[in-house]
Design goal:
Length: 357
């Protein structure tokens, strides 16, 4: 059976490293746990790091977090669907919002539940996912400030989430200026400018981060140590907090070219024949994961001699070449994961999850 392992020591190391960096820059931060898909075993591991703030995009995950750690501040990080509003007020201390109609409903529900709900208003900064347009911001805030049981604690923005627009010093200065405009016009303090995500971290190291940005939400950098500007691992961090172990369920020396009339496979892919491979063979292994669990392009074989050939719904085919490592049926092959691959694996109920200490 395939198993996803999380290495405790590497996770703790990455957390401590990031915490030092943010404290040096007087930045508050929370951990984004949407990658974990509500897995209670892994959530407990993250909460044990000493985290005081957790961000997630699923209310059910926030409910699980509140069950384990009621003291932790929970943040719902996407605009709220109407049907989720009662649960958001119950299980999220803070939410990201962009629509006045929804904030009004949150206000009404917060009054019913006798709670004060905090919000961060997201501003459109070019990536064209969620966000209030800058020209509409003053009028938007003017209406929101009047709502009972709603406290605006910040404004924020996302980068690189849809169209790949990267954060820059100029964009972050602009985000900070929005806060100054709102505070000056309404004589209201906004504690946070939440312009920081994993993609923004490199600006700290290149001294391009404006002082006004004082809140970060971090997921990918914690779990993968990835510098999204360079594609490399941040110095002093681990890129393999997670590893996937998959069992070889067949291993046979086979031709490298399929035989017979070719058509599209069930994934809509057409195989292109490389005539130079006619008559050649290699050792091919079938592993006990498939497209139901992960897209093969997000797998990184730890043995560099292994090539991923493709996958069907529940089997993955890899090429072992001459099989110099003498792999055999029943052996486990190790893979690193890219973020979207780990997300798929964590969302799969067919993959075991395990902590390594």
């Amino acid at each position: 059976m395939a198993v996803l392992k999380l290495y405790h020591d590497k996770l703790q190391h990455n957390y401590n490293h990031l915490d030092r960096v943010f404290k040096q820059h007087s930045i508050d931060w929370g951990i984004v746990t949407k990658l974990l898909c509500g897995n209670e075993l892994f959530l407990k591991e993250v909460l044990a790091l000493g985290v005081q703030e957790i961000h997630d995009s699923r209310v059910t995950n926030l409910k699980a977090i509140k069950k384990v750690a009621p003291h932790v501040q929970t943040v719902y990080i996407k605009p709220a669907p109407k049907q989720s509003i009662p649960d958001i007020i119950q299980f999220a201390d803070v939410s990201f919002q962009t629509e006045y109609e929804i904030i009004k409903l949150l206000s009404d529900e917060a009054v019913r539940q006798q709670k004060q709900h905090k919000i961060i208003i997201m501003i459109e900064m070019g990536d064209l996912r969620e966000g209030v347009m800058g020209d509409d911001l003053v009028n938007f805030y003017e209406k929101v400030f009047e709502l009972p049981n709603i406290s605006v604690i910040g404004l924020g923005a996302n980068f690189n989430c849809l169209h790949g627009v990267m954060p820059t010093r100029d964009k972050l200065i602009q985000l900070s200026l929005y806060k100054q405009i709102i505070e000056a016009k309404f004589n209201r303090k906004i504690p946070w400018v939440s312009g920081g995500t994993s993609v923004t971290i490199p600006l700290l190291f290149t001294h391009q981060m404006p002082q006004g940005i004082n809140h970060f939400r971090i997921g990918e950098a914690l779990f993968f140590g990835l510098n999204l500007f360079t594609g490399e691992t941040f110095e002093g961090m681990y890129d393999d907090v997670f590893e996937l172990f998959t069992e070889i369920i067949e291993l046979t020396e086979k031709p490298m070219i399929p035989s017979g009339m070719l058509a599209e496979n069930p994934s809509g892919e057409s195989f292109e024949v490389d005539e130079s491979l006619y008559g050649k063979t290699s050792h091919r292994a079938i592993l006990d994961v498939g497209l139901l669990d992960i897209n093969p392009k997000f797998l990184i074989p730890k043995d560099e001699s292994i090539s991923v050939i493709g996958a069907s719904s529940d089997m993955l085919v890899v090429e072992l070449g001459d099989n110099k490592e003498n792999y055999k049926v029943g052996d486990m092959l190790r893979f690193g994961l890219r973020y979207m691959g780990a997300l798929s694996i964590l969302n799969s109920r067919y993959i075991a999850k395990e902590i390594v200490r």
